[in-house]
């Protein structure tokens, strides 16, 4: 059994160090987690402007749709050419051959890698047998990994949860067994979110379960769940001994978080106004007006979670029905309003659900 390395104060050096995945070097060990409805091309461009990450992941793409998708029309299967060398495309589905065909298209387009979603617990996904529902079907999940592995040579990631068991011990053991199966089927790295699917995000993730995954396999394991500030990285690394960290919702609240963790970046006081304005601007760059406004509103609750009175800010930003009004509300919130906008280091979790 491997010993958990105590990172102590050098966790930044560790996370800033490169890592190889299937022989391809990644410049550091901080990943943007795949997020449905949030990890769009505009949001990724803003994260990229702050730097500090190793890989970015797309939102969930339907495996059945990917082979025929037009990147100029699709809202999800869409990218900037300059990001391909550090971009992983996540796909979901329940049919091995369909997942393999999607992976072939992803490899052909030049993505760094492909990620299989075995973690989404949304009812619309699970009732079709996809996402976390596959954790109830270990053999099918393993066959999907194997089929994709046989189809492509690019790095293959699997994002998964602990399963569906309420008993913490059973959940941990099930997750470890699944991890072994994924490695045997050809996965090159795992991103593990240590919560059971029925929990969604209601209870804290069990970071100690990441250690069980790490000790069960030899491929890299990236921990995911409730990383809100640099101190959380140090704690997760010490508890789990994982090879790196995947950050999702907090990157929406603070797109500069990777740079803060890796480079010690300290934002200016006006960073929130700048990022809100930049976000709607980038969305308008990549999407039509209606779609841009819709996508901005999906980001608003997570962005607002970083404020002491986040619910009020969220309501104000969700009210506009066009981009011009969004710009106006942002301006009023931060420059014309007399209210004192206080930020918080840790987010309001009621806005993160």
What does it look like?
By secondary structure, the protein is an alpha/beta fold. The protein folds into two domains: 256 residues, Aldolase class I (TIM Barrel); 81 residues, no CATH class. 43% of the residues lie in helices and 15% in strands. The protein has an eight-stranded parallel β-sheet. A two-stranded antiparallel sheet has the order 1-2. Strand 8, helix 7 and strand 9 form a beta-alpha-beta unit. The longest helix has 18 residues. The chain is globular.
Describe this structure in a few short sentences.
The protein is of the alpha/beta class and 353 residues long. Helix content is 43%, strand content 15%.
Keywords:
TIM Barrel; alpha/beta; 15% strand; eight-stranded parallel sheet; disordered N terminus; 2 domains; 43% helix; single chain; 353 residues; two-stranded antiparallel ribbon
């Amino acid at each position: 059994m491997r010993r958990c390395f105590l990172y102590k104060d050098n966790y930044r050096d560790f996370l800033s160090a490169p890592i190889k995945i299937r022989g391809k070097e990644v410049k550091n060990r901080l990943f943007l987690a795949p997020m449905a409805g949030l990890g769009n091309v505009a949001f990724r461009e803003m994260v990229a402007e702050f730097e500090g990450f190793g890989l970015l992941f797309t939102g969930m793409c339907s495996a059945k749709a990917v082979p025929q998708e037009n990147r100029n029309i699709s809202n999800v299967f869409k990218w900037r050419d300059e990001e391909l060398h550090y971009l992983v495309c996540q796909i979901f589905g329940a049919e091995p051959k369909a997942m393999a065909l999607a992976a072939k298209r992803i490899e052909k387009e030049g993505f760094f890698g492909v990620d299989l979603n075995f973690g989404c617990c949304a009812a619309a996904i699970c009732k079709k047998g996809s996402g976390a529902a596959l954790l109830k079907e270990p053999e099918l999940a393993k066959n999907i990994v194997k089929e994709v592995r046989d189809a492509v040579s690019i790095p293959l990631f699997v994002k998964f949860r602990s399963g569906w068991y309420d008993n913490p011990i059973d959940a941990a053991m099930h997750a470890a067994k699944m991890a072994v199966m994924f490695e045997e089927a050809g996965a090159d790295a795992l991103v593990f979110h240590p919560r059971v699917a029925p929990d969604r995000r209601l209870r804290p993730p069990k970071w100690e379960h990441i250690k069980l995954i790490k000790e069960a396999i030899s491929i890299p394991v990236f921990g995911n769940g409730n990383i809100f500030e640099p101190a959380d990285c140090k704690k997760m690394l010490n508890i789990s001994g994982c090879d790196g960290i995947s950050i999702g919702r907090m990157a929406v609240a603070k797109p500069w978080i990777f740079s803060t963790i890796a480079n010690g970046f300290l934002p200016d006081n006006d960073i929130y106004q700048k990022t809100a304005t930049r976000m709607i601007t980038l969305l308008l760059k990549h999407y039509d007006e209606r779609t841009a406004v819709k996508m901005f509103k999906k980001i608003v609750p997570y962005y607002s979670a970083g404020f002491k009175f986040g619910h009020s800010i969220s309501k104000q930003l969700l009210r506009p029905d066009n981009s011009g009004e969004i710009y106006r509300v942002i301006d009023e919130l931060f420059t014309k309003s007399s209210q004192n906008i206080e930020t918080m280091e840790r987010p309001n979790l009621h806005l993160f659900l």
